[in-house]
Here is the input.
Amino acid sequence: MAASPYQQLEQEFRRLHAFRGAASLLRWDAAVMMPRGSASVRGEQLAALESECHVLLTSPKVSRLIERAQASAGQLEDWQLANLREMRRERDRAIATPVSLVTRLARATSIAEVRWLEAKQEANFALFAPHLEEVVALTRDKAQVLSQALGLEPYDALIDGFSPGFLSAEIDQLFRAVSTRLPGLIRDAIELQSGRPPLSIAGKVSGSKQRSLAIEVMRALGFPFDRGRLDESDHPFTEGVSGDVRVTTRFVPQEPFTGLMGVLHETGQALYDLGLPEAWRDQPVGSDRGMALEESQSLLLEMFVGRSRPFLAYLRPLLERHYGVAGAEWEIENLYRTLVHVRRGAIRVDADELTYPVHIMLRFELEKHILDGTLPVRDLPGAWSDGLEARLGLRPANDAEGCLQDVHWALGNFGYFPSYALGGFIAAQLYEAMRSELHDLDAEIAAGRFGGLIGWLRENVHSVGASLSSQELIKNATGRTLTAAPWLRYAEAKYLEDRG
Amino acid sequence: MAASPYQQLEQEFRRLHAFRGAASLLRWDAAVMMPRGSASVRGEQLAALESECHVLLTSPKVSRLIERAQASAGQLEDWQLANLREMRRERDRAIATPVSLVTRLARATSIAEVRWLEAKQEANFALFAPHLEEVVALTRDKAQVLSQALGLEPYDALIDGFSPGFLSAEIDQLFRAVSTRLPGLIRDAIELQSGRPPLSIAGKVSGSKQRSLAIEVMRALGFPFDRGRLDESDHPFTEGVSGDVRVTTRFVPQEPFTGLMGVLHETGQALYDLGLPEAWRDQPVGSDRGMALEESQSLLLEMFVGRSRPFLAYLRPLLERHYGVAGAEWEIENLYRTLVHVRRGAIRVDADELTYPVHIMLRFELEKHILDGTLPVRDLPGAWSDGLEARLGLRPANDAEGCLQDVHWALGNFGYFPSYALGGFIAAQLYEAMRSELHDLDAEIAAGRFGGLIGWLRENVHSVGASLSSQELIKNATGRTLTAAPWLRYAEAKYLEDRG
Here is the structure.
């Protein structure tokens, strides 16, 4: 019997998945293993694979098959229908962006990335400005064509590329809700913590000791080392596909927790990838539901679980065993205070859980105005400094610590930043729902038993794949649509607990 | 101006090169880094890339462009003409083998490989025989279709896939020339060596010490670690493309030279890859000239250079520094005798330089007769044992040490084995020519200066790429067509030097 149009589509997207998995491994290798001088060769390989994916998605054959499969959609099961919807989504986005635009963006961003690094090293925005302007112009073109094709506002069309289904207006609403309460919360938390500063944790812990601890923790969380790896790279990341997930972190001898927190963060995403519906793993419906959901899984493990007293109760004997440490500064309460310490600062990636959303809201405002033209690129440094001062009461020392600190815009990733904050809000709502169902969760965590926690996430998030929209997924898992209220409740309980 | 048909072809083959480079990296990763449970995922990625290469080579577009480029060949430069010839060659081979046959062979060999390993572990050929039979039947089909398309005898069409331009009849002639002299040579060498057995080299050298020595030697040979790596794997191999070459070896603490000799062998191939004509590196004419030439570069470094007194004079102080060894057994003369020790044995990969061609000649005879049907697969174990006894005077203890020792036939690689012996003959002829031009070569090697040696290979072999046929390349480099005489001269001088 000949394959149906839908079955042929599955075959085409299976190829797409294989190409993307190959590209993911090439990116992992480039960051972890590749010799320095091989970047241009690798760039050609990645470009060839990406262009092949674009050719596949925009081929007349795939479009014809999608129309024919749609015509006989009555014969498809629910998962197949969801898969067909995701295929359309990918096809629509690919067809909307002509190859010439993709190529120009790739060229402009690859130059802008180099110039960004130079400008950051010299703390001189002027070196980067013309390149950012070109990236912005091309990103506007991209937003425009996607907007027409998808029926979304231009900025929403960009957000949709990272966190499908989230609209700028909804994010605005969440951010406003948080903004009314957050400045006071930060102020109160800092005041409360200043009365009980943690003892400083001095001394070095070798990378190999930190690695052996991290591996024991990853095993306890259920990371399968027969289908994944832990390596080191300049910045922590997760790459790979659901049968071969590669986590990286960075172990710094002077900072005994930086590497471990990176591992928890990345393991959250890795377990998401590993828990995607196995039967659909090479199809669009079997992929994750975008950056915001991914970030929720990362933050849930790092912030909600990792930076908690129950987790530190589990960790304490492991620290003794792997690090060979003892003393008052290694007591659970002191570790906890160290890991939840709130501090206003200029750098996003160094920010604590409470001030982090402030950095995101600043970027959200600025990138909207850059894209709609109300903020000229040349005025970015001033707008950045003013915005940070208005929100956190401090100005960056220079552009390197200001608007040059992140690479995202150089890469054309406008619409990406909101995912980080959305991830926190989603994590809070998921964690609240989970805690109402799993009553002995703290005791389980303290005992190093994470099966219930991961099982809940697997059932309610991971195994859903992309079969539901982000909002449906959250509503199914928690019983309500996403709001900032759980995050605010969580933040108040955690950071104002000492208040009388 | 629109791109000419020839320029469009270059663009298509640039894509092919990128896909193949990606596949090569995926294979490297599978052998060196990949978690055990990820094999099936990796298999899908490699199959998708390989099938994409086949689609590209067999596309009507590429064939049309080849015909049009050929029609205006008068406007092409010599390198471009050679490139076009290699494009045709690849296209012709791909078009001759239908996808259905490629797919069936891929399936049959992947099963046969697993069964071969089981059969080898149980030393039971019967477990493997039916699977080998299927692979043989499909390989015969492949040889047949290639034979018709290329105008070659079926077995020659298979050899051509590994070492282009070598014919079975020429190999026969070389083997006959060697055969008349080799049995006596082996006998005399063993007798001479038995009078002065080397002191045994006891003690363990850690993998990390062996690695640091190997890296120093690779650097001295000119291996660029900014465009390549050294790692460990079960069996030494080289993967990658000319801008990113990955060498592996295996360090065994009890065997202080196994890993280093593997490194020399693989570095020979790696330097070939790295010395290919830079301007043509992503085109067919910029690739190596096949397995026999590759093997010649490996053997030249491992056997001709590495197992020589001048090289050991260079190595001696490095051994002291890296291994921290001393004593009579570590003196140059004893190391030399250890590394050129001749011993009759059943296993090809353990064979010394002198008995090695015997193992190849056995396989050459047997695979010809398997393919033409005069040797039924079920009779292979007996024919193997009889052949080995006739040639080396010993019988394998069982099938695992007999006809099950190599994986090549399970993978359908008939026509591959001759390359190993051809590589030795080519290396000898190149080395003889090189020595007549570089008069102080031994002194240079003893001083750890390999620039002249590698420079000669770069000029005469590496930089030629695939612009000449194998025979033309050898004739240009050495002034004469390939014969076995230089190898016999080299072998007699090296192994009968003590004879009065």
